[in-house]
Every structure is written in structure tokens, then in C-alpha cells.
Amino acid sequence: MHNLWQVHTDKFINEKESIMRNGNVYQIANGYMGYRGTLDEFGPDELVGITLAGLYDRVGDAWREPVNAPNGGFTEITLDGREISALSTRIKKHHQSLSLGNAVFERETDFESRGKALQIKSTRFLSADEPNLGVIKFSFTCNKAARVRIKTGIDYNIWDLNGPHLLKLTAKKKSGTLLVQSVTGEASKKVTVAEVIDLHFGKQTHEAGGNKNLRVIELDAKANQTYTFYKYFAVVTDNDPVKTSVHEAAIKKVEEAKDSGYDECLSRHNAQWAKRWEHCDVKIEGDDEAQHALRYSIFQLLMVAPVNGSANSIPARALSGQVYKGAIFWDTEMFMFPFFLYTYPEKAVELMRYRIKTLDGARRKAKTEGAGYRGAFYAWESQESGDDACTYFNIGDPFSKRDLRTYFRDKQVHISGDVAIAMWEYFKVTGDDSLLLEGGGEVILECARFYYSYAYFNKDKHRHEILDVVGPDEYHERVNNNAFTSMVAKATFEIANAMVEYLRRRHPDKLKSLVKKMDITGALPVFREMADLLYVPQPDETTGAIEQFDGYFKLKETTVKELKARMIHPNEYLGAGQGLAVPTKVIKQADVVMMLNLFKDRYTEQVKKANWEYYEPRTEHGSSLSACAYAMVAADIGKLDWAYSYFLKTAKIDIEARYKVYVGTIFMGGSHPAANGGAWMTVVFGFGGVKANAERVVINPRLYKEWKSLQFNMFYKGDSFNVKITRNDVTIIADPSNKCNRTFVVSGKSIECVPGKRLFVGYR
Amino acid sequence: MHNLWQVHTDKFINEKESIMRNGNVYQIANGYMGYRGTLDEFGPDELVGITLAGLYDRVGDAWREPVNAPNGGFTEITLDGREISALSTRIKKHHQSLSLGNAVFERETDFESRGKALQIKSTRFLSADEPNLGVIKFSFTCNKAARVRIKTGIDYNIWDLNGPHLLKLTAKKKSGTLLVQSVTGEASKKVTVAEVIDLHFGKQTHEAGGNKNLRVIELDAKANQTYTFYKYFAVVTDNDPVKTSVHEAAIKKVEEAKDSGYDECLSRHNAQWAKRWEHCDVKIEGDDEAQHALRYSIFQLLMVAPVNGSANSIPARALSGQVYKGAIFWDTEMFMFPFFLYTYPEKAVELMRYRIKTLDGARRKAKTEGAGYRGAFYAWESQESGDDACTYFNIGDPFSKRDLRTYFRDKQVHISGDVAIAMWEYFKVTGDDSLLLEGGGEVILECARFYYSYAYFNKDKHRHEILDVVGPDEYHERVNNNAFTSMVAKATFEIANAMVEYLRRRHPDKLKSLVKKMDITGALPVFREMADLLYVPQPDETTGAIEQFDGYFKLKETTVKELKARMIHPNEYLGAGQGLAVPTKVIKQADVVMMLNLFKDRYTEQVKKANWEYYEPRTEHGSSLSACAYAMVAADIGKLDWAYSYFLKTAKIDIEARYKVYVGTIFMGGSHPAANGGAWMTVVFGFGGVKANAERVVINPRLYKEWKSLQFNMFYKGDSFNVKITRNDVTIIADPSNKCNRTFVVSGKSIECVPGKRLFVGYR
Asked: How is B470-504 classified by DSSP, letter by letter?
């Protein structure tokens, strides 16, 4: 088996498709920026991209998307006047790897050119210690004496999906530092890249032209001698909390890095990564394939977690490019957040602060969508302000060549409840109420207020209903009483009520001022009625099946296969007004099953089983969010083989990079952090059977048969625990630094975990 | 100017399109059946059709549609062994005409064949006195002696859109009568055609074959001698109230007709037509074009009015063929019914009885659509049972070649209110409560109950709302708070309440048993609340504009012309999920303006003007129902030139036959009785300014400037009045047979019309 702490390949396939997919698999990131896994000599045609978190720009009517920075990592080399590149030179050997332990990317390529062999080796990382910083060690060795010219510096030929976003690009050299300065078009935000190198050979000149700001180093290289230099680049923007000007800050950052030196930078970087893994790793004994896929998934999440204090969140394609507008979807709260909540709460806080920061945007959206609502209707595709980046026309129709009207933006109202649920989970699992007091409580109340103004009362049936929505299954738009959405809305009212009760007891003054500020006194009793009388479709008394929405059971019975056979264009969309799936029971992704997972405590095993079996064969899994929901519920009901196969599907999506990269004409390649989060959830919540609430942590192990043990750490109420599950027993070690005893319930047995003590419980 | 009592042409254009259009323009009908305006020798390729009212059949999964009967009017002729036909023989002269006075169709064609001239002349009518009967007089004259063979009888090569509907077709000859017997496929209903002729020349033999049951008459015709024979055919089906077997009844009908003879049959027919015109004609002095178009419109309605006692209604394409499944739409109540109500109430009764007959179908539909409703949800496309013939996929998409999902059937809920309003109008204008007691009251209460179960209460805004509907403007589907629909629903509650009050006062026992039978006691107080709190979009305080539905004002501004320029396929549909009009303000037809017309007493002239001017430029008039609404409101607000031009549009639609005949692959040619009714309404309600309510008849004349006078009859509460409007005054003659004084209000002046007296009122 391969090294479980890296991904690597010994092939370089000179095809666009392979280069694009490797760009995703080998990307590195540090929460501030992502750097696609491309080679040093590559440019925009090979989709080189340094995508910045939280900085967006829009050109004309095109999609608003994150800004890609100039590439400060660019280096190209010529041997005896001939350009050496993986794209054009004969390659004798190539190896590239990405270390999961510290997000270091390495490439080593042996070229042959006119009878000479040149080896290029580079090592690159984005500092986990200094978010603006990228560091590269670049070496080359020729087997014969040769004239070598290196061009290294900043390439500002930028790959953009809907750019160009950076205007007034200017290249400068200030003392030893290369600078590329620019401003974004929409908001005139400065974006500057500085670069310095640490080099001790050759003759250096400066060359600017062709949108590159370069140093040219010429030397007569000796045979078999290895020449090495170090590159430091920094990206600084107006979004950064810098005290000086942006370009001064950038210069300072690269100079300081150079002064510290490569080894010191790497060691600080490694220290950060070591801390992360120490608490976040999950160990699966007896199944290297699962272990590797899971570790890669966790790695992806750790790389893209927002910088502390940034109040940024994680886009649906993380920092792997501009796909999906760099927007934050429900993916974050429902699929990524739990991982951070249990293992890395300081990042969970940032994700929640992002929703607090964008509350005003959610209020604006509520006011302007549909008939105009009150409260907070969070953006379906959220960027820095919380205004919705989602368009009303999302998907290209291959028949008419027009964009199809979809209702993701205006009808996928479960997003607000998803946020409220995550906010409350944060409080329940961490026990930390500061977030509630610093805006989180307001978020919850505004989400409840939104549902109150969105819901209607059915007098004939004496119940509130949530009408005209799109649930997770986006193939059936504008449905009434979608089980998932209604349940999320109901939970939002319950959470609002519980939170008000909590504040009334613990922070009455804060409650008073919040209620006053929000002018919401009268609504509070109504929220109680809403929680009681809001209709959520219930299991059928005979079959146990829950109707996904009003009328779903009356739709046409068909199979996914039969449906796909009826497609007459490979890119035709199955949903929207007229898609093939619309009149049928075929669904895009987990919907009722997603609800059964999210609210697993509220449903019997029989109901979960009935619905899993009903919906599973009718699900296309047209979204990467689907597999983990089916995996978790499968684990919950003891279908462990199914759980395992869906787990591999969710865990290997990025490592195998076999996903679709085009829908219609829309490029959608990139990483899948929600599926990564789903992989972690499937292991810890599914096979581990972990579920924490405000009172206790419940563990009902469902260990997969090939696994000897499963071991992970988790935080609960600020205390740290190591849990090891074997076939017959569970060992829980409460960290000595823990503050309190905590209650764990293992397969029904309640136990107290005392700080510093190890507990051993049999569960068979 | 042409004869104002006929349409005619001196051309025969041997093209499919022209033959099809003339088939519509020259059709005759008698309420029992329609006979397209084709020539004697034509067959199914020329769209010969004898369409039966109220008899439907379905083949497999194809559309259910009315049955076309075998053609008992078929005659072809050969001259010296050569077939003579307008399709193949040289025509020297051709004339055909349709008399509006009595629905008699005549053709006279001079053929030339091998140097001989043959004139064929035929006269045809469907008896207005004996609904099953068709009568033809056929003559020919040759300028030279010639061998002539006539084949006449029954052609059962039937033109069907979605047939064949008639199975087990058998041809017989019994004594002198030809018979074609058959049964429908779906319900095994017998359909029989009998034919006899009255002929006194030649040698007759019988020939059956090629789906024709024929007599062959051979003779040596003398030069310049005219030979004439008479043909009588009868269609009888299991739907007829016959005492004998269907074929015996058919034989009897043709034998009796033959015994009576042609002249007697024609004279009885003419007597019926004379009676109709006596009360139903409208005279426009000074404008022959308007007079002729209006008369043709009235003629169309008179021809297709259901047979007394049949409880049939009038399909959207009347009896001109199988288009639109021969189904009854809201067209009947909203556009045709008023004509009958004011001029021919015995037919208005049949239209209403049809809705009573189909109440159970409407109840079934309510139960099964959407989430399941209570009460009566009338079929959007109604056939004999009231179950909905409308499909969920109605319109072919030229891009994907698939059928588009439309929401006509399940969301066009205004249909129930349209029925309730017509039912109540009948009572208000006739003063006759018998219909209410014989099922009409139940219809009204069931419609109110339906809206009660369909409506939702918006707690946040403290009002009931009608959500998720399609209004008259079918380009914007699934909208909330459509002004037209909500107003119709509100009116339905008001009507239900007024009717309950009326019954309580006048027929308390009937009310008691109705309420008990319907188990509706508790709902009655709720209907009062519904009438009060049901939200109907109101005029904007500044502009006066009423938003057609929630969000309409936020749609994209564009012009009809610009929108059409963006079409990339001539047959692409502008509505449904993805049509070009959907995101724009372009509407298919009058919607808010339709409401302002229907509820003209509730809105100020300023509001009507504001909305007419707002919506008129945004209306495509993609439906033949649109023009008359704009015409009537234009008259109402004094825009008489506009009213006139929209009037001509609605009045001339069938006479000019310029409408579209294909939408996608769907044939939709035929007559437009709703537009015909709209023409009458525009003249009497619009230019005449007539509006009756339960207390009085209001007349606010808006005479068009080119008209010297406008004269019409009307019934009010069973009494008859002749009204003549000139430029300055109104003359009302109350028929001597009237039973009571009736109040008329002419331009604000209230006057009492005493039986037998003439009143003269100036209004300038």
C-alpha cells in the first residue's frame, strides 16, 4: 500500500484534462489562498490559479467570483537556449507528491534536451503560520555543463473564468523585491504580490513584459552540480488587517520570510500542521484504503479552513478555483461544519462569524425575494456581503441554448434553518454561549422570523405549512411541504424558543436588549405556536415512508437508468421546468434521507430503514452531497456494507477526481469539501455512532467489519477526548487538562469521563 | 357593400390551407352537430367533418375528443366516365355562400371536362327543427348530352385527429335507406347514420366498398336539362333520448323527413332561425363592416347553442371539429354565456345545467389534484363527465421535441369561480331561482368550499391568499395572489353568502336540506370571513396600477416586438417553465383588464384607465379571448377608437380566418365562439354600456362615432326589451307581454319601463 500520508504520481500526462484534474488533486491551501497543483513553468492555459478567500469581483454582467492573484510562484528554465517545460520537453522521469501531513507539494522531473539530462526539483507550501506567504525551494541539476537561464518572478497572465478582475496591473522592482500591483474592477480593492528570492549563483537582470515581472538569472552550470534557490512570495490585499500600505506590507512579509530562511519558515509551517493533525486525525486500523481516503478528506478541510479572525467561510469548491463563484452554500453548515465543531472549534467559530457578518445581506434578501419577507433569508450562494450571488437562470439548456430558470436562489429556503441549526449546535457541543451573545442569537431569531413570514396557515387542516420551496432534491422545484425543509423550519422555531429560554435564564439583560433592538416581542409567543403547529410530512402508517413533498408519491415510477436512457443530449439538465426527472420519482440527492440523518433522534430505526430502502433506488446522486447522507443512515440502521460503499464514494471523490467537470458549458471542476466533511461524518457519526447534545455524548458504535479499530479525538464543551472503538469495546481517554466530568453514553450505558482518566466500556 | 346576411366567395383555391380555412368559415351547425364547409365530393383529406356535440371517445393514450360521424352528405359525379371534382376538374366558375339568416350553405360550380360544361349546385342545412337531421338538395346540368353517373350515400372514411373512434363500422341498405352503424371504442356507444334520397331519374344500384355505402345512379343526361334530387341524412347515437333502437330511430327520422319533403323541412328550419334572429339580432346603423362581422359572430353562437334538454355546453372550437378535444373551457361562462343570458335564456339554462351535470366530476378533480381539496374544482377542459381532459403536458417544445409541462389543468383555479359567477348572473338577470334549487346552489357552495380549502391564511399579514395559480395570462404560471383569480374567488364567497341569505329568506327548507346533504354547516360562517379577508391586489396609490400577481412589477421590462425578435423557432411557446415571456412583463392576454371588465362596478374610471394603459402595450393577445376584454374596458373609459379596433379584431376572427392553425405540431384551427361572444359583449356591454344587476338595468351609452344607431333586444327578469341608442338618446320599448315594470338607469337617470310602453331618454 502507498504511503498513507501522501498522494503522488510517477506520470505526467500532457493532456489538458489530466493537467486540470491534477491541478485539483495536488492543490495546496492555507485558508487565505489556494494554489492549484500545477508545475512551476505553467501558466493560465494550464489553469494555474492562486484563488483568494473572501475577495470577490464582478465584470459586467458575468458571474461574480473570487479573485485569482498573480502567480508569484512562477519559474521557467532554459537549457542552452532551449526552453524546458513539461509541456514541450522530453520527460525521462517525473514524480510529484503532496504531503498530507503538511500540505507540501513537490515535483521532480528529469528532462532530456539535446543529449543533456536536466533534473528540476521544487518544493512548495503556503505557510500555515503566515497566511499571506508562499514559499518555494527550486533546484536543478544538469548531467553536463550547460548554459542555463532561469526566469523566475510573478506571472500576471491570470486564469479567470469570468475576468479580468485585476485592473491597472503594474510591475515594479523595488530593491530586490518584485512587485505586481493591481486593483479589482468592482470595488477598487488593492491586490499586491511581492516576491523575493534567495539565490547565490549566476547573474541576475530584471525583465518585465508579456504580463510577467521576472528576474533573469544566467549561469554556466557545471555538470552534476545542483543549484538551489528559494522563492518567497506574499499576496496582500485591502481585505487584510495591515497597518501600512498594501504593497509595503507585502514587501515586509517576503523580506521577513527571507530573513528567517526556508528551513525556519517550513518548520513554523510544520508546527502548525502538526498541531492540527494531533487533534484532527482519525485512525482506521485494518483498512488502508479507507484510512487514506479519509485522511485526504480531512486534509482538504484543514487546508481551507478560514484564517482565524477573518470571519470567512469555505466555498463549495473551497479554494481550488473560481468554480461556483467561490460562493458559500449550505454545504458549509451541513457538511463541513460538524468536522470543525468536533475537532477544530476555532475554525467552527469563523464559519459561524461569517453568517453573523452576512446577516444584513440575508435581511436584504428576505425583503426583496418573492412577496417580501421579514427576518433573514440567507443567500443560496453567499459571498462577502451575504447578498445572493445565485442567479435566477443557472443552467444552460443544450436544446434552446438558453439559460434555464431555476429556483435555487428564491425557493431553497432551508438555507436559513441550516444556519440556525449550526449556530445552535455550536452552542450545544461547545457549551460556549459567546457566539449567541455576539450576533448568533440574532441570526437564530431572524431565521425564525423569516420562516414565520414565509409560512402559511392552512385553516382547513389547522396547521402551518411551508409552501413553494426547493428541497435538497433540486430536480423537483417549487414543491409544498417538503419534509426536509419543513423539518428544518420547525427545528428553527424550536431552537429560537430554546435560545430565548436560555437567555432569559442566563442573560436576561442581553435578551431584553436583543428583543428591543429587533422589535420582536410579539413574535416570540408565535414562534412557540409555529413550532407546535408546523406541518412536517409524517411516516405512512403502513409503509413507514415519508412523502418527500405533497404529491411526490403520485409521480411517475421509473428508474435512474431508464431515465438516463431517455436523455437525448449528454448535458441536458434533469430538473428545472421541463427536465426528464421532474414528472418522475427520480431525485437528485438525499432529501428525506438527509432529514432522517439530521434529525436522527426523532425517527425510529424502522422509519429510517423504510425510507432508506424507498429512496435509495430512486436517487441519482447527482450531487456530491448525497452519498454521505445515504452512508450515515445506512450505518445508523446497520446496513454496514452499504454504508461502507457510500463512504468510499464520498471519501474518494477528490482523490480520484472522477467527478463531472462540465455541466452544459459551465466548468465546475475543483475540490469537494462538503463530500470531504461527509467522509469524516460518516466515519465518526456513522461508523463511530457519535452524537453529542447539550447533556451528553452518545456513542453507538457500528464498526465496519474489516476495521480492527477506529480512533479519533473530539472536543465536547471545551474538553478533549480520545475515543477508540474496537470490535467489542470503546476506550475513552479524557484529557488531563479537561475542566469537568462529562457524561458519555456508550450503547446505552452511561459513564462519567473524569479529567485525565481512561474508561473502557464493552458494547457487545 | 356585400350582403350583410351572408358570407360568400367566387373563388375556389385548390390548396389544403384554403380548403381547411373555408371548412371553418362555411361550416353549418345545429347544436347537435357541426358540418364543416366542405364540398359534396370531398373526403377526409379535405377535412370533411360532422362533429357531434357531447359524444366523446378516446383511443389509447391519445387525446380524448368528440366523435365525428360518417358523412351522410357525400355525393360525387362522373361525366362520360370521368370523375368531376373541384380537386381535379377544370373549374370555369365557382360560387359558394353561407346564409347567416338560416345557416344554409350553397355551392354552385361550373366544370369543364372534355369540351362539356357541367354545373353542379347543392344546398345544405342541418335542421334547426330536428337536431339529428341534415338535408341536401343536389342538382346538375350539362350543356351537352352526356353519360352521368352519380354516387351518393354515406362516406365513412372519417377525418379524426386522434381516432379512429368508430369501430365495427358496417354498411347496410334496408329498403331504400342506407345505413352505417358503428360503436365508439371506449364506451361502446352506438353511432348510426341513415340516408334516403328522393330521386326521379336514372337507374339506381347499390355499392358498398372502400368505406363508402353508396347508391350508384346512372343516366344519359340530356343537354341543358337540370336534374335534381334530395338527400336526407340523420345521425342518431346512444346519447339521444330515442325510444326505439338507434338505427330504427335514424331510419324513421330520414323517412319522415323525406315524407315531409325538402320545402317543408326547410320551412320548419327557417321558422326556427327567424325566431332566433327576431330576438338576437343587433343592428348597427352606419357601419356595414361592423354590422356584418357582428352578425356573423352572433350567427356562430346561434348555430352551436346546445339542443334544448341536452345539458350540453359549447366547446372552445364549438362544433367546427375535434380541436381542443371538443372540450368546454371557461370560454363558455365568461365569453359566450352573457350573449345567451341576455338574448336566448333557454340556451343559457343548458350551459348552466351542463355544469350541474358535471359537478361530480369537479368534486373528483378537487380530491385528486395537488394536496387534495374539498368542493368543486371544475375541469379546465371539460367533456361529458366533468373529469378533466386537460393533460399536464400540453404543448410541444420545438427544441427538445418533448411535451412541455404546463399548469393549465391543476392551477387555473379561477374556472370554478367563473362557473359560480355565471350561475349567479343567471339568477340575477333572469330572476329565475329554479336553477339554484336544481343543483345550481350546490355548485356555488361547492365552488366556495373549494376555494376555502385551496386558500391559505397569511398570519403575518392577517389575510387569506390564493397561492400558486395560473391566471388568464398563461405565460406566467404558478403565481401567487393573481388579481383576477383572487377577485373571482372573493366573488365566489360573496355569491355563496348572498345565495345562502336568499335561500334562508325564500326557501328555508331547501337550504336546510342542501346544507345537510353537503355537510357544510360549519363552513358557512367561514365563507363570510373568507369574503372579508381574502386578499386581492389593490391599485397602487400613486399610479393606480394593480399588480397582476406578486412580483409582476419586478419582472423584466420588454416589448412584445422585442420578445418576438428573440424567438429562435417560429413555433416556440412563450410560457411554460422556460418560455421567453416568463421572466418578462409580456402577458399572453387580458388578465387585470379582464378583471376590471368582469368587476367593472368595483373600480373607478381612473383605475381602469391606468391599468388599461399599463397592460395594453404589454399584452401579446396570444389568445382570442384577449381582444374583447381590452375592447370593453376601452369603451368603458371612453377610448372609443381603441375599443372599435379591438372590437373588429374579436368580431372578424372567424370571418377572416386569419388565426394561427398550428401551435407546435398541434392543429388548432376552427371557430372561436368565445371571440364571437366577445364581439356581442363589446357592442352591447361596451358601446351600449349595458349592465344588469338584481335591481336594475344600467345603460351608459358609449356609441362609436361612425355609428348612427345601435339597436338590440334583451331579456331582463323574463321580460323583453328593445333598446335603440342613437348619438343623443336611448329609446326603450318594453314588450307588451312583459309582466312587470322594470327599472332602467340611463346615464344616471332612473326610469320605469312599463309593459307595452316606449321610453325615450336623452343622455347627452
From this structure: --S-TTS-SBSS-HHHHHHHHHHHHHHHHHHHHHH
Q: Are residues A168 and A54 part of one domain?
A: yes
Percent of chain B predicted with pLDDT > 70: 99
Rg (CA), chain B: 27
Whether residue A177 sits in one domain with residue A34:
yes
Q: Does B402 touch chain A (CB under 8 A)?
A: yes
- Which of A742, A436, A472 has its CA nearest to residue A589? A472
Residues of chain B in contact with residue A402, where contact means CB-CB under 8 angstroms, are 578
pTM, two decimals, is: 0.91
CATH number for the domain harbouring residue B418: 1.50.10.10
| Phi, psi at A304, each rounded to 5° | -105, 0
Is residue B694 in a domain?
A: no
Assigned domain for B693 exists: no
Does residue A300 share a domain with residue A272?
Answer: no
Model pLDDT for residues B613-662, shown as the tens digit of each residue? 999 999 999 888 999 999 999 999 999 999 999 999 999 999 887 777 76
**Integer Cα distance of A366 and A465 in angstroms:** 18
Q: What is the CATH number of the domain that holds A160?
A: 2.70.98.40
CA dist B255 → A222, B24, B62, B195 (Å)? 121, 30, 38, 9
Q: Average pLDDT of B176-187?
A: 97
| Predicted confidence band of residue B764 (pLDDT cuts 50, 70, 90) | confident
Of A371, A480, A582, the CB nearest to B480: A371
Whether residues A682 and A730 fall in one domain = no
Q: In what order do the strands lie in the sheet with B758-762?
A: B282-285, B709-716, B719-726, B729-734, B758-762
Name the minimum distance, in Å, from the CA of A422 to any CA of chain B: 26
Domain membership of residue A698 (yes or no) is no
Looking at the annotation, which residues of B are catalytic? 474
Q: Is A474 on the interface with B (CB under 8 A)?
A: no
If you average pLDDT over residues B107-123, what whole number do you get?
97
ipTM, interface predicted TM-score of the complex = 0.86
Domain that holds residue B210: 6-244+265-278
Q: Does residue B1 have a pLDDT over 60?
A: no
Does A750 touch chain B if contact means CB atoms closer than 8 Å?
A: no
pLDDT the model gives residue A665: 61
Question: What is the per-residue pLDDT across B342-397, written as a single tens digit (0 to 9) for each?
Answer: 999 999 999 999 999 999 999 999 999 988 999 999 999 999 999 999 999 988 88
Q: Angle between the B626-636 and B605-615 helix axes, to the nearest 10 degrees?
A: 140
Residue B113's pLDDT is 95
Whether residues A467 and B467 touch (CB distance < 8 A) is answered with yes
B671 within some domain: yes
Q: What are φ and ψ of residue B84, in 5° steps? A: -105, 125
**B525/A contact by beta carbon, under 8 A:** no
Q: Which residue of B has its CA nearest to A523?
A: B460
Closest CB from A397, A457, A576 relative to B457? A457
List the single residue in B370, B401, B457 with the smallest CB-CB distance to A550: B370
**B742 touches B734 (CB < 8 A):** yes
Give per-residue pLDDT as tens, A105-160: 999 999 999 999 999 999 999 999 999 999 999 999 999 999 999 999 999 999 99
Q: Show residues of chain B in contact with A371, CB under 8 Å.
A: 480-481, 550-551
Q: Is A583 on the interface with B (CB under 8 A)?
A: yes
Instruction: Answer positive or negative: Cα dihedral of A125, A130, A132, A135.
Output: negative
Shared domain check, B191 and B292? no
For residue range A454-475, list pLDDT tens digits in order.
Answer: 999 999 899 999 999 999 999 9
Provide, as residue numbers in chain A, all residues whose Cβ is less than 8 Å from the Cβ of B452. Answer: 459-460
Whether A509 and A594 map to the same domain: the answer is yes
Q: Looking at B626, B652, B687, which one is the last position of a domain?
A: B687
Give the best residue of A373, A394, A456 to mutate against chain B (max B CB count within 10 A): A456
- Does residue A305 share a domain with residue A249? no
| Domain tally, chain A | 3
Does B304 lie in the same domain as B272?
A: no
A548 and A587 Cβ atoms separated by less than 8 Å: yes
Higher local confidence (pLDDT), A293 or B570? A293
**Residues of A forming the active site:** 474
Distance from CA of A322 to the nearest CA of B (A): 28
